[in-house]
Specification:
Elements (H helix, E strand, L loop, with lengths): L18 H4 L8 H13 L3 H6 L10 H7 L4 E12 L7 E12 L2 E14 L2 E7 L2 E4 L25
Antiparallel strand pairs: 1-2, 2-3, 3-4, 3-5
């Protein structure tokens, strides 16, 4: 996947966008970078990264196992960042409003959330948010790449 576009929606290759954060060779410098890398981690089933970037005060006891169990049922498709609220580069808190689209049991949904982030000892963490999940009417074309990331066109894979 290193030379393909990043799952977060950036036009950059994954290797130059979210991969350095997920592989821990770099730390996100902003809450938005962390949000984008967390979305990519959901897409790529990088569950340990999701746990590691969730603030320790907010982690669930079986968080890693719950994420691993959701792997086969939820397919993350697309991320839209609506707005980022961070007073300055030195600010210790930030908010990111986003929509994340996913498919579950052949139905599309939009998770919309205003997420809170905190910087603790030089590292950004996801703190919490107020998610809202609604059915989504995604307009996919037959010749688009399939949402399941199989590499096939939609018409040859999950034609709806």
């Amino acid at each position: 996947m290193n030379n393909s576009f990043c799952p977060c929606g950036s036009p950059q290759p994954y290797s130059q966008c979210c991969e350095p954060f997920i592989k821990k060779s770099m730390k996100p410098q902003t809450a938005e970078q962390l949000m984008r890398s967390r979305f990519s981690a959901f897409c790529l089933s990088e569950h340990q990264y999701l746990v590691d970037t969730h603030h320790p005060s907010q982690r669930e006891i079986n968080e890693l196992r719950a994420l691993q169990e959701s792997k086969g049922t939820t397919h993350w498709i697309k991320l839209i960042i609506h707005q980022t609220q961070q007073d300055s580069v030195k600010s210790q808190t930030a908010r990111v409003e986003f929509s994340a689209f996913f498919n579950e049991k052949n139905q599309f949904f939009e998770l919309r959330e205003m997420s809170n982030f905190i910087q603790d000892r030089g590292q950004w963490f996801y703190l919490d948010g107020n998610p809202s999940i609604q059915p989504a009417d995604l307009k996919l074309k037959r010749n688009d790449s399939c949402w399941c990331k199989s590499g096939k066109k939609l018409k040859h894979c999950h034609s709806l």
